[in-house]
Specification:
Rossmann fold, alpha/beta, Methyltransf_16, five-stranded parallel beta sheet, 288 residues
Amino acid sequence: MAPEENTGIELLLQSFERRFLAVPTLCSLPWQSLEAKLRDSSDSELLRDILQKTVKHPVCVKHPPSVKYAWCFLSELIKKHEAVHMEPLDELYEALVETLMAKESTQGHRSYLLPLGGSVTLSENMAIISHGTTGLVTWDAALYVAEWAIENPAAFTHRSVLELGSGTGLTDLAICKICHPRAYIFRDCHSPVLEQLQGNVLLNGLSLEADINANLHSPRLTMAQLDWDVVTVHQHVVIAAGNRLAACREHQRAPEVYVAFAVRNRETCQLFTTELGEPPCSPGPACP
């Protein structure tokens, strides 16, 4: 195999690995690139490698996505395989049978591979709205801030950080694992969200301040119920999910504030940025 061809296959495998573990919409996976590779070669080894990078991945085996997601993924993979008239690949059908035999749950996992190794794994609800809140699922704005934080760790290193509306914990956990803050405070207003968030903190090998077994080399982590009408800020950095930041603005020494939110309504976006004294949002999946 030519070096450039080998490089292309490695990039394809990495793309499947990262995207599948993060459980995006299936159409966002690199299916077209896979089809092109399968047309160029009748070898089934590539599909075996994709299985090892996705449903057979150690992270996925330990913390699987929803049964429905895995079933849809394998069904699509089998469809791509059959389209090139290859011999049946037993491993694909065996994986599908194992998935169909698994018990469906209201919870599933997303795992985000970190640039320097390791991952952030989240257990979250499968329903967009559950227990009267949307905070039990991961939203694009959290992913946006997490990616920005990983690229700008100095904004958080050795500093105390407060997040208003922590949700599933993606942003918090990525910052705690990569950026080495001195202290991090998780806050959300819904009890079910805080309960799930606490589980995700422990799932990722971190401990809350009250835990006597807390790792002394990890940031000091605390969690508290959030009342949007009474927000007191004493931290260096505040991360917010597009809500009221008056408490920050009234501080004599205002902290650095980073905000990201999904733009579902342009008027709401413009009203929010006007209140902050910023220009209106530009079109995009999230407004930083």
